[in-house]
Amino acid sequence: MGRPWVSYSGGLTVGQYAGTVALRDDWIRIAESTERCDRPTAEAAVRQAYRVAGLDAPDVIVWMDSPLGGTLASVVLSHHTAPPTRLWAEVWDGLWDQLGERVGPDLRDRLTEQLWGQLDERVWARLPPGMRAQTDEHLWRRLADQVRARLEQRLGDRAVAQLWNELGALLWEPLRDQIEFQLVDRPGFDLWDRLQHRLGEQLWTQLEGRPFPWEHGRQLGPWSEVYWLVLFTRALDIAGLPASPRLAAVATAVRAVGWWWPMRGAAVLTDRPTALHRDPQGRLHHPDGPAVAYADGYALHAWHGTRVPADLVTGDGWGPHRILAERNAEIRRCAIERRGWDRFVVEGGLRQVGRDHRDPGNPGQVLRLFDLPEQLRGLYHQPARILVVSNASADRDGRRRVFGLPVPADVPDALSAAAATFDVTPAEYAALARAT
Amino acid sequence: MAILRTVLDRAGVGALGVLDSEIDVPVLTGAQRQGDVIVLSRPQLAPATTPLPASGVQVVRAEASSNTHTLHSWDGTCFFDADPTGGDAGLTLGTLTVPDGASAYLVHTEEHGANGIGPGTYELRRQREFAGEWRRVAD
C-alpha cells in the first residue's frame, strides 16, 4: 500500500529515471575532469559548506597538488605544534623516511617544500589550539545519516530500501566501480596506516591520546563521494522532500575541488589530476606513461585496471628477467602483455607445442602453441598454454598485431587451441573460408 | 559482390587507412572470422525473424566505442536475432538469416574491413580466452 501523498511508491517514473541518469553523467564528467581548479571559487565553496553546516569557516586554507600532498598536509596540520614537541619531531622524521622510500626523495622534497612554504609563523598563530579535531563528521557523515533518516520517515524503511536498490542499479557500476574503486589510490593513502604500524600505537596514544587521524577524519573528494552525493540528491527529490541546503553546499564544494580535508580552523584542498587515462572498457590504463598524473609529479600507473610499477609502462618496459623475477602473477601478466607475447615466447624461452599450424582463412599467418615455463606456471589460476595468433588485417599504423591467448593446458595442439577459443571443433575451425 | 569502399560507404563507416578500399569483398556461405567474431553456418537453426534496420545493427556491445562489428543487409533484408544470454558457452551473439537473393555484410570499424555473407542461417560468436576460467576476449 503506497501512501498517496508520497511521490515514490516503488518504481521510478520515466522522468525520475532520466533525471537520475542526467545527474549521474554530469558527475562522471566532473569526476573525470583534469581542468585546474578555480581556486578562489573552490575556497569560497568550502567555506560555505562549513557555514551551512553551522561551523566556523576555516581561517587557514592550504593548497596541494595531489592526494598524496593533501594527505601529508592533513597529517602535519593535525599534529604539528609550534614549537614542535620531541614526539612530533620523531613522527616527522618517520614520515620523511617513509615518504622518501615510497615516492623517492625528489617528490618528497617537492611536497614538503610546497607544504612548509604555506605554513609560516603567522599561519600557525591563526590556527586554533583545538584544530586537530577534524570536521568531516559534521560536514558529511552526520549529514548522510540525517538524509537517510528523513527519507525513512517520509517513505518508510521498505520503500527507502527499494528506492536504494533502484537508484543503486543506475549508479553503482558507473560511479562506484568505475570511479571510486578504479581511481582512489588506496596504496597511496595507506602510507599513513603503515606509518602508524611502524611507529607503534603507543606513540600515537602519547601524542594525542586519540586514535590515528586516518581513523576518525578523512578526505572528501569527487571520486569517493560522487555515488552518495548523487544518490542522496536524487532520493530526496524523488521522495518529494525539499533539497537539503547542507547537501547542496557539500556538493558544490566537491565539484570545485579535488580531494579536500576539512579540519577545524583549517582546510587542506588539492587540485585535480593533470591527466587521466582509461582503456575502452573504462579501466585505468596507459600503455606508455602515468594513467593518472598530478602537477606535483605524483602519478599512478596502470595496465588495463591493474596498478603496476612505473617502469613497467615506460620506455621499453620490463625485460624477460625482470618479468620472471616478479612474484605477483597479475603484475607479471601485465608486464608480458606490455612486452607482447610474440616477443616474450622467444625471450622467455617458452617451449613450442607441436609445429606451426597455418591459420585457416588467414593466408601466410600461423597459429603457434606454447607451454608456460616453470616460473610462470602460476600465471593463471588453472594450468594454461599460450596460443599466439596474428591478426588477419594490419592495423591503421600498418603493423599486424600479434596476440597471446591463454588456453587450457590440456589443449593438444595449436589448431585445437584456436578452435577452443570459439568453442568449435578443430575440423570446423580448419574449414574457415576467410578471416579479416 | 561489392568492393570494400562501397560496403563501407553504405555502412556509414569512413575510409580506412591501410586497407585497399578497392578490393572485392567475397560473399561466402562457409565459416568466416572477423577478428574476435566468428560466423558459423548453422542450417539446422530456426531462421532469425528480426529484420535488420537500414542503419545496420551492432553485434558486439560497444565496450570499445571506436571498435565495433556491425551487420548490414544488401540486396534485400536480412534478419538478426540477438541472443543476450550468450548461449551455452556465453559466446553466442545471435542468429543471422540471409534470404535467397540477398547478402549481409559484417563490417568492422577499425582494422578488419568487411566480410560478405551469402544466403543461409548462421550463428555469430565471440572469442574467449582461458585466464584460469574461460572469459570473453575484450575487443
From TrEMBL, chain B:
This is Uncharacterized protein. It comes from Pseudonocardia humida.
